Amino acid sequence: MTIGSFEPKSERKRSRKNKAVVDENAPLLPKSQESDVGFDDFNGASFSGAVFNLSTTIIGAGIMALPATLKQLGMVPGLVAIIFMAFLTEKSIEFMIRFTRAGKSTSYGSLMGDSFGKYGKALVQLCVIINNIGVLIVYMIIIGDVLSGTSASGEHHSGIFEGWFGVHWWTGRTFVVLFTTLAIFAPLASFKRIDSLRFTSALSVALAVVFLVIAVGISIVKIISGGVAMPKLFPDVTDAASFLKLFTVVPVFVTAYICHFNVHTIDNELEDSSQLRGVVQTSLGLCSSVYIMISFFGFLLFGDGTLDDVLANFDTDLGIPFSFVLNDAVRISYTAHLVLVFPVVFFPLRLNIDGLLFSKSKPLVLDNFRFASLTISLIGVVFLGANFIPSIWDAFQFTGATTAVCIGFIFPAAIILRDRHNIATKGDKILAVIMIVLAVFANAVALYSDAYTLFKQNKTSRA
Predict the structure, then answer these.
(1) Which terminal Cβ of the chain has fewer Cβ within 10 Å, N or C?
(2) Mean pLDDT in the chain?
(3) What's the CA gap between 79 and 74, in Å, rounded?
(4) Are 207 and 334 in contact (CB under 8 A)?
(5) Which domain holds residue 17?
(6) Is the Cβ–Cβ distance between 277 and 361 less than 8 Å?
(7) Is residue 2 part of a domain?
(8) Phi and psi dihedrals of 46, rounded to 5?
């Protein structure tokens, strides 16, 4: 069975155009509105726009940690893991959409509600809220670190503005983040259709490619000049602790591919919903290619010196001509990419918190006051979190090992095992069981390893 195989194409298009906008499960903005609603007719999102929006949802901060996963796993297992996670992601989304078609659900929450009732629906909404708030705070912290600088472990890393203009109040972290929030985040977060972000999403993907091209170019120059050593092909496992440490990369892989919370929104706005399978496969193919390239060349370039955040490696002399110019180009291109990813991840956050808190109210698109209030409040929460939390990379790992893995793998697999519409095959159920076992085991070990490492660090610091 494949995505979109349950209704004839003409019936799907007709039912989507006639879908009533009277319940909280309806798309945020229908394809066409009655004239008295006050919106222009919207005939549906294009294939390319959907691909850009889904790709932008996928490619976020996780890309910067992928080279470090190769340092942990070795080149060969690391690249295999990236491809394997892309396969699991495609299957989990296929599970979701197949049961979405069968149950005529219009959101991830209503899909879980169809299989597990109101508590299942509330659980997935809560997970999306926790996950996306954490991710957006991480984005804002990274933007502040790159543009204004950061100090960690007694070492100061100069930001781009600090390096260009010196230390001033207007190059400080708080002002830069506040200006970015008011000038860019707030306007882009005010759109009521995710398809309205298709052009910024296309630019976002292009900036990620620019980041990749520069990194690849630097690596090739270093290879030619003999400045690159042979990378580690396989992990160094000497004891139980080093074996368990391998599992700490799992949350990074999960976070790198998480996009499930935007699939229904993109599907609801597609002009032809039968294109969704192609949209998912194209986006995953594009993002996997970018992930493989940046992981390979990033690890090749920095080797065992690869940091958890590979952007931090681009603040020193790379040993090639125009090193600092290239460093700034890398950091600016990826920071601009994250700025444009922000509204795409913010969109489902607002939609899910509205569904959780105002499930009995009229659709969010028809209530401008509620829409504005939620937008302002959520941006305020993210802004405060980014300014008062000094570093949340550890928290980011814990989020990836809990809410993200539930959204991406455990919930879709649970829907298959529940099989409310009796459409899952034996192979589907076997894969669903494997998916849940892998997710629970790997992330439980990752949580244990992270907690153990933090405990040892605290104990050492006190001593």
Answers:
(1) C
(2) 81
(3) 9
(4) yes
(5) 9-462
(6) no
(7) no
(8) -85, 165
pLDDT in tens, 185-221: 999 999 988 888 889 999 998 988 888 888 888 888 8
Its pTM stands at 0.81
Tokens encoding 356: 């959780």
Cβ(260)–Cβ(87) under 8 Å? no
Cα 118 from Cα 107, distance rounded (Å): 13
Q: How far is CA 195 from CA 219, 317, 354, 361, 403, in A?
A: 36, 41, 19, 24, 26
Q: Residue with structure tokens 């222009």?
A: 40
Dihedrals phi, psi of 111, to nearest 5 degrees: -65, -45
Number of domains observed in the structure of the chain: 1
Taking the C-alpha atoms of residue 217 and residue 356, their distance in angstroms, rounded to an integer, is 47
Contact (Cβ atoms closer than 8 angstroms) between residue 374 and residue 354? yes
Distance separating alpha carbons of residues 251 and 446, to the nearest angstrom: 7
DSSP line for 178-232: HHHIIIIIHHHTT-SSGGGGHHHHHHHHHHHHHHHHHHHHHHHHHHHTT--PPPP
Separation between Cα atoms, residue 380 and residue 70, nearest integer Å: 36
Contact by Cβ (8 Å): 25, 110: yes
Distance CA 159, CA 301 (A): 22
Tell me which residue of 87, 106, 136 sits closest to 23, measured CA to CA: 106
- Beta-bridge partner residues of 157: 150
How many angstroms from the chain centroid is the CA of residue 445? 22
On whether the CB atoms of residues 312 and 77 are closer than 8 A, the answer is no
Closest listed residue to residue 87, CA positions, set 247, 275, 284: 284
Token pair of 59, please? 């490619």
Closest by CA to 123, choosing from 435, 372, 415, is: 415
Distance between CA atoms of 362 and 344, rounded to whole angstroms?
Answer: 23
* Segment 4-21, tens digit of pLDDT: 444 444 444 444 444 433
- H helices of 319-358, in order, are 323-357
Distance CA 461, CA 373 (A): 43
Assigned token pair, 343: 């509204």
Per DSSP, the three-state class of 335 is helix
Is the model's pLDDT at 103 over the cut of 50? Answer: yes
- CATH number reported for the structural domain that contains residue 219 in this entry: 1.20.1740.10
CB-CB contact of 342 with 185 (8 Å)? yes
